[in-house]
Each structure stands twice: as structure tokens, then as C-alpha cells.
Design a protein that fits this description.
The complex is a heterodimer.
Chain A (H helix, E strand, L loop, with lengths): L1 H16 L6 E16 L1 H5 L6 E2 L9 E4 L2 E6 L3 E6 L7 E7 L6 E4 L2 E6 L2 E6 L7 E6 L7 E2 L4 E12 L5 E2 L2 E2 L7 H9 L11 E4 L2 E5 L3 E6 L7 E7 L4 E7 L2 E6 L2 E6 L7 E7 L7 E3 L3 E6 L11 E6 L7 E7 L6 E4 L2 E5 L5 E5 L10 E5 L6 E4 L4 E5 L2 E6 L7 E7 L4 E2 L2
Antiparallel strand pairs in A: 1-12, 2-6, 3-4, 4-5, 5-6, 7-8, 8-9, 9-10, 11-12, 13-14, 15-16, 16-17, 17-18, 19-20, 20-21, 21-22, 23-24, 24-25, 25-26, 27-28, 28-29, 29-30, 31-32, 32-33, 33-34
Chain B lengths: L1 H21 L4 E15 L6 E18 L2 E12 L2 E14 L6 E12 L6 E2 L3 E6 L1 E13 L6 E20 L5 E2 L14 E21 L1
Antiparallel strand pairs in B: 1-2, 1-11, 2-3, 3-4, 4-5, 5-8, 6-7, 7-9, 8-9, 9-11
The chains are: A mainly beta, B mainly beta.
Chain lengths: 415, 213
């Protein structure tokens, strides 16, 4: 009886208490975004632009080769300079800290680099004593916010809030893939003069620079005295510029613009070849333009292909053939050989002498070399991948031989 | 989930019986089943709803001093939307005469694992659940059988068990720098652009009955 009473007491106690505790629930949303950062140009201009000792590369952007030097841009931070006499053993020499830098080009020992809204010219004739020789202020004015007079840039960051929304501390944030900053960073992941994803290029004593919607022309006939000539509106979505045969081939996410630059101070539009919304670096030879279209960023159509466009009549470019690709990024053309960076899928080489059978003439597909851009240089094929900047002996395009890799401390994500 | 629960309960029981059959005098085996009751709270709302969840566990311990046993604790707890397998250490203590029923006290401390929860993965997103540390003190009585060395137990206690649900969107197909966790106070797992974490701390009253060998 005593035991029965004990059990009854326990059951009653349990029934009373059973639903007395309330669970706690909370939610955290961690997301990657671009935080707006406002800068005063006077503060930026006050900073020293003197080379400092070699720094480890955290995140490679644009690469550029000049004589025996390899220059690697660190987006928004500056430019690393490597001695590349021996591609099998590049030597890190120094770093030029340049805030807001995403592009570079070199003309006759003068290095041109952007510094947010300004264009800088450095004398690099002596690599040991690089010095700033000219600053042209307020040329890349698209970075200015007219309401504040300050520069608007974006810092890639990770935030945590208690709910999934695009507002943080009364600020509207930018979805990284849709932002100006992302495109700048993407543009930075490219190579230099003659490269498929460059935004700065040199031709006939002129520097041509594109941003999202404008082509800017500079007179650099006197290399150390660059002069801004004029801006030319192109329409939104401009991504790359490639010079060839007194023409400028400008890749946008809606198509390819062809400009006659026989009068380089005053380029004239010849044609616009339109395609679906996709990212499209361009390289060309005398007869054909090779354009890679890929999905990603603004380019969300899921199109991944290599298009060959007949440009024998530059006023009427025509699609000759399109080849399916995996996720092509940058590309490079060396004589009849075409090299395509296929993002996380690897690096491909093709014999492109017959433009109608490129797919049947794939020479090599190195799946271990994740790549986003490349330069077929005079001494080596230079490839940027998530693991760093690697160089290949490409004397035999069917058997690329790795020479060296510059490891990076904060590799980029290759899709 | 029901079939998985039954399989887990059967396996634990079978192992317990085997252990009990082979155990020495200074060993103790306890198998319990019961309920975990509480009020579930709805996210972003003050609303609550009662929950009553099945719980099953086994304890195998060794006498460390008279009437005190320390050992391992295994079990299965079915919370709303998540099945956790508690694995940890347990203590059992008894007060009372050697003849007749005794008061029983105990506590379990360990980790509620999510081995049986599936990770969902698509091209665009992933979702999964994670368990967490649990603490379960209780009080009860031990009622000896008229014959044999086994006894019935009945207990009431409190159990704290956190668990989290994660749902994340994969990085989009694009090339962007990774963000070093040092640069920010927050960090994301590699390959993710966003991650939503819903953390639930289950506060339950436990009511269990069992047998003890």
C-alpha cells in the first residue's frame, strides 16, 4: 500500500511538472556580403606609395608580364613584383601598396595603376627604386558618390544577424554576387595587356580603361605624362578589353563591342555582337574572336560555352560555331593553340587551327590545375588558380609541363 | 523515425541484457523508458505547444563505493524533428535499507549525437542537424522484486539538451576571394555563402520507469 501511494505521488508530481519547462529557441543567420565603405580621396592621396619589401600573396588578382618581371595585383591592396627570369623559380622582389588598385598596364617602363578614382604612373625603369611620377586625379569618377562626395567601395565580409535579411545596422547591404565590388574583384582576377579579362590595355600610345559602362582613353605617347582624353559610354555590363589590329574588342555581359581604334584618341564603334546574358572574356586573331560565356555572377543563364565569331567583316560579326564547355573563365591564344581556364574543372589546351573542329582537337585537360585566368607568355604559360599562380612550359601544347607555383595564403574560390 | 527508434531501443536492450548476464556483483545495469515533456516554443513568436517525447536509455555502471555506481549511459531521445542518441557518463546512488525500496538519485552527462539524422544536400543548398551536450539529473525510487536480484525503478528529473538545425546556401559559381575568419567576428564554413542556424535548447521534465539488474 505504501509503495502504491509512493507511485501515485510520483505520477501526480510528474503530471504537474511535465509541461512546466519551456524550450528556448533562437536563430542566427551568417552571411557573406559586401559592406559599403566610404573613403575621402584626400586621405587616400595622403598615403605613401613607396615600394615595401616583398609580401606574401593573399589573394591574387590581375597578372601582368613585362620583360622579365611578373606583376601580380592584390585586389584593392597593391602590386607584387616578381623577378621571372626563370619561370621555374620566380623571386618575390617587392610590393607597391596601392589602395583601391585592381588594374595595371606597363608602357615603356611606366606602370599605370588605378588608385580608386585616380590613375597613377610609376617609373619602374629601376625595379629597386620605383617611384610615382604622375597622378591624374578624378578620372574613374564612377566610384564617387555624388551625394557625399566620397568614394564608395565595398569590403567583402561575413556578418551574423538574427534573421535572414539584407539589412544590417540601418545599412542596406549588397548581395555579393550582384555588386560593383564583386565585379571589380572579378575583373581583378585577370591578366594584363592582351589578356582576355583585362580592363586596362595599351595600344598605339594610348591607354584604354573600361569600367562597368565606360571606356576611358588616355594619351600615353609621353609615357610618364599620361593625359586623360575622354570617356566613351558603352552601356552597362562591360567586363573586359582586348586590343588587336587597331581594334578594341570589349566584352560585356550582353555581348562583344568592336571599336575602330585606328584613331586611338577617338575610338569609333564598329559593331556590337549580342549574345545571351553571360560573362565573356574575349581573345582574337585576324579572322576570329574567341569568346567564353559562363554562368555565374550577373551571368546566371547557365550558359557555359566557347563561341567562335567571324570578325573578317568587323562591322558584321557572325557566330561561326559554339562549343559546350564546363565553366570557362579566361582564355588565351598563342598561334593556333587555344588555352581555356575552366574554373574548378581544370585547364584545357586545344589546337584551334580548324575553328570548326576545336572540340575534336582538345590536346590536354589538366583537371588538377583549377584555373580562372592565364597568359600565354614568352617564356611560360602563366595560370591563376585557387592554389596560386602557376607557370607551365607550353612548348608542347599537348603536354604542358609545370615549372613552378607561387602559393597564396588566401586562395580564391574557383567555381 | 519510429522503426529506427525501435531498432535502437532493441539493440540497447539486447546489449544491456547481455552485459547484465555477464556482470559481477559490483556491477549495475539499468534499462529505462519514459517520456520527456516540455513546451516547444515557436521561433519569432511567443506561442508554445506541449510536447511529449519518447525516451529510452540504458546505464551500465560499476560500484565505486557502497551504493554509488559510475558508468556509461546510452539512449535514444525523440524530440520534435530530431532523433538524438545520448552517449555519456552516468551516476546512480541509493539511500535506504537493504530490504525494501530505496530512494534513488542519479545524473547523466554527455553528448546527444545525430548519427541517425540525414544530411540533405542539393546543388544549391545543404541542411543538417547537430546535437549537443546534455545534462540529466533525476530522483526516484528503487523497488526490489520479490524474487531475484532485479528491481523496478521509477524516476522524475530534468533534462537539458541543445540541438541545432543548419540550412545553408552554397557559394555561387563565381570566383571570389575567401574571407579569412580572422578578419571578421563571424565565419562561414567553406563553400557556403550563407548559413541559417536555429538552435533549440530542450528543457524537459523526464518521467521514466525501468528495470535494474
Amino acid at each position: 500500500m505504501k509503495l502504491f501511494h509512493r507511485n501515485i505521488a510520483l505520477v501526480l508530481l510528474a503530471s504537474t511538472l511535465l509541461f512546466s519547462c519551456t524550450d528556448q529557441i533562437n536563430s542566427t543567420y551568417t552571411f557573406r556580403t559586401l559592406m559599403p565603405v566610404y573613403l575621402e580621396m584626400k586621405d587616400v592621396r595622403a598615403k605613401s606609395l613607396v615600394p615595401i619589401p616583398a609580401q606574401e600573396i593573399e589573394n591574387p588578382g590581375k597578372i601582368y608580364i613585362y620583360k622579365d618581371f611578373l606583376l601580380i595585383n592584390e585586389p584593392s591592396k597593391g602590386i607584387h613584383i616578381y623577378d621571372n627570369k626563370k619561370p621555374a623559380n620566380p623571386i618575390n622582389l617587392s610590393f607597391i601598396p596601392i589602395e583601391g588598385n585592381v588594374d595595371l598596364a606597363i608602357n615603356d617602363n611606366i606602370l599605370y595603376a588605378d588608385n580608386y578614382v585616380d590613375l597613377l604612373a610609376f617609373d619602374i625603369s629601376s625595379i629597386q627604386s620605383i617611384r610615382l611620377v604622375k597622378r591624374i586625379e578624378d578620372v574613374f569618377t564612377h566610384l564617387y558618390q555624388h551625394s557625399t562626395g566620397k568614394i564608395l567601395t565595398f569590403k567583402d565580409t561575413v556578418l551574423t544577424s538574427d534573421s535572414p535579411r539584407w539589412e544590417y545596422n540601418d545599412m542596406w547591404l549588397v548581395r555579393p554576387s550582384m555588386s560593383l565590388g564583386a565585379n571589380m574583384a572579378k575583373a581583378a582576377s585577370s591578366y594584363g595587356t592582351g589578356g582576355s579579362m583585362a580592363r586596362f590595355t595599351l595600344m598605339d600610345g594610348h591607354l584604354f580603361a573600361v569600367d562597368q559602362n565606360t571606356l576611358r582613353v588616355f594619351d600615353v605617347l609621353s609615357p610618364a605624362e599620361p593625359k586623360f582624353i575622354k570617356p566613351i559610354e558603352l552601356g552597362w555590363g562591360i567586363e573586359t578589353i582586348f586590343p588587336f589590329d587597331q581594334k578594341l574588342f570589349i566584352g560585356s555581359n550582353r555581348g562583344m563591342h568592336i571599336y575602330d581604334a585606328s584613331k586611338p584618341q577617338d575610338p569609333k564603334r564598329m559593331a556590337v555582337y549580342e549574345h545571351v546574358l553571360a560573362c565573356d572574356p574575349v581573345v582574337v586573331n585576324k579572322e576570329y574572336a574567341f569568346v567564353t560565356l559562363r554562368s555565374g555572377n550577373f551571368c546566371v543563364n547557365g550558359v557555359n560555352e566557347l563561341q567562335v565569331i567571324d570578325i573578317r567583316d568587323p562591322y558584321q560579326p557572325k557566330l561561326t560555331k559554339a562549343y559546350p564547355m564546363l565553366n570557362p573563365h579566361g582564355l588565351g591564344l598563342a598561334e593556333n593553340y587555344l588555352y581555356v581556364a575552366e574554373g574548378k574543372h581544370g585547364l584545357k589546351s586545344f589546337n584551334a587551327s580548324d575553328i570548326l573542329t576545336i572540340d575534336k582537337n582538345q590536346l590536354e585537360f589538366i583537371q588538377t590545375m583549377k584555373s580562372v585566368d592565364l597568359i600565354p607568355g614568352p617564356k611560360s604559360l602563366i595560370v591563376i588558380g585557387p592554389d596560386g599562380v602557376c607557370q607551365y612550359d607550353y612548348s608542347n601544347p599537348a603536354k604542358l609541363k609545370k615549372l613552378s607555383c607561387i602559393q597564396v595564403s588566401n586562395p580564391i574560390e574557383a567555381s | 523515425m519510429k522503426s529506427r527508434t525501435l531498432i535502437v531501443a532493441f539493440l540497447i536492450s539486447w546489449c544491456s541484457v547481455q552485459l547484465a548476464a555477464a556482470q559481477g556483483k559490483d556491477m549495475l545495469t539499468q534499462v529505462e523508458l519514459g517520456m520527456l515533456g516540455g513546451k516547444s516554443k515557436i521561433l519569432w513568436s511567443e506561442e508554445t505547444e506541449d510536447r511529449l517525447n519518447f525516451s529510452f536509455s540504458a546505464f551500465h555502471g560499476k560500484e565505486i563505493k557502497p551504493n554509488h555506481y559510475l558508468g556509461i549511459h546510452l539512449g535514444n531521445d525523440n524530440y520534435p524533428d530530431v532523433q538524438l542518441l545520448p552517449i555519456g557518463l552516468g551516476w546512480r546512488g541509493f539511500i535506504g535499507d537493504d530490504i525494501g525500496s530505496k530512494w534513488m538519485g542519479g545524473a547523466n552527462l554527455g553528448f546527444g549525437a545525430t548519427f541517425l539524422e540525414k544530411r540533405e544536400r542539393t546543388e544549391w543548398s545543404s541542411s543538417w542537424r547537430e546535437g549537443g551536450l546534455y545534462f540529466h539529473p533525476f530522483l526516484g525510487i528503487r523497488m526490489p522484486a520479490k524474487k531475484g536480484k532485479w528491481a523496478l525503478t521509477s524516476s522524475i528529473g530534468y533534462k537539458w539538451q541543445p540541438s541545432s538545425y543548419f540550412e545553408g546556401n552554397h557559394s555561387q559559381p563565381e570566383t571570389r576571394p575567401r574571407i579569412h575568419p580572422f578578419w571578421t567576428r563571424a565565419s562561414l564554413p567553406e563553400g557556403f555563402n550563407s548559413l541559417n542556424k536555429v538552435n533549440t535548447q530542450f528543457h524537459s521534465i523526464s518521467f521514466q520507469v525501468g528495470i535494474l539488474f
